[in-house]
Design goal:
The complex is a heterodimer. By secondary structure, chain A is mainly alpha-helical. Chain A is about 65% helix and about 0% strand. In chain B, helix 5 packs antiparallel against helix 6. Chain B is globular, with a radius of gyration of 18 Å. Chain B is mainly α. Chain B starts with 14 loop residues before the first helix and ends with a helix. The chains are: A mainly alpha, B mainly alpha.
C-alpha cells in the first residue's frame, strides 16, 4: 500500500535535505489530507 | 515518456500560476461584482477554468514540503487528473449537498478538465514538443 502511494506521488526516494523525511508516510499523508481539506474550504468559501 | 529534467517547476513562483491567480482575483473582486446576474461566462465558468493553474501549484508545493513529491518537476497528467476528480467531487457534490455552498453543475467539471488540460500542456510543453515533434525534427535534419 505504501509503495503504491509513493509510486503515485513519484516519491520512490525522499530528498535527502527534506526536514520531515523521518516522519512516517502515513503521518505525512494525514497532514496532506488536512491541508487539502483546508485549501478546498478556503476556495469554496472565497469563490 | 522521457522527462526533461532541465525544466524545474517553481510552485508559487511559476509564471502560469501567478498569471492565473491574478486573473482569478481580478474576476472575483473587480469583474464579477460589476456584471449582471444574467451574465454567464464570467459569473459561472471563468474562474472554474483557472482552478487547476491557480490552485494546483500550492497543493503540489505542500506535498513537496511534506516529502510526498520527490522532485520539482512540472505537474504530471496523473496529478492533474487526480485533482480534477478531487475538486469535481468536493465542489460539485460535497459543497452543494453537505456544506450548502455553491451549485452543482456538470459544466463546471468540464471547465476544470479543460483548464487542467491547457495548464498541463503549458507546464509540460517541452516534454510534449520533444515527444511529439522529435520525429519531424529528425526528418528535417536528415540529408536528402
Amino acid at each position: 500500500m505504501a509503495a503504491h502511494i509513493k509510486s503515485f506521488f513519484g516519491s520512490h526516494s525522499l530528498a535527502a535535505d527534506n526536514p520531515v523525511r523521518h516522519i512516517s508516510l502515513f503521518i505525512r499523508l494525514f497532514f496532506a489530507a488536512v491541508a487539502v481539506t483546508l485549501y478546498n474550504l478556503v476556495i469554496l468559501y472565497a469563490s | 515518456m522521457p522527462r526533461d529534467l532541465g525544466s524545474a517547476f517553481h510552485y508559487g513562483r511559476d509564471v502560469l500560476f501567478l498569471v492565473s491567480s491574478a486573473l482569478y482575483l481580478t474576476n472575483r473582486f473587480f469583474i464579477k461584482p460589476h456584471l449582471s446576474g444574467h451574465e454567464y461566462f464570467f459569473h459561472g465558468h471563468f474562474n472554474d477554468c483557472l482552478l487547476v493553474p491557480a490552485a494546483l501549484p500550492l497543493f503540489l508545493g505542500t506535498y513537496r514540503a511534506l516529502g510526498l513529491r520527490a522532485a520539482d518537476i512540472p505537474p504530471t497528467w496523473r496529478e492533474v487528473l487526480a485533482h480534477v476528480v478531487l475538486w469535481s467531487f468536493f465542489f460539485e457534490v460535497l459543497g452543494p449537498d453537505w456544506l450548502h455552498r455553491g451549485t452543482a453543475d456538470a459544466w463546471d467539471v468540464l471547465c476544470y478538465a479543460a483548464g487542467g488540460l491547457a495548464a498541463w500542456l503549458l507546464w509540460n510543453r517541452r516534454t510534449v514538443a520533444n515527444t511529439y515533434f522529435k520525429t519531424s525534427a529528425c526528418e528535417r535534419n536528415m540529408p536528402q
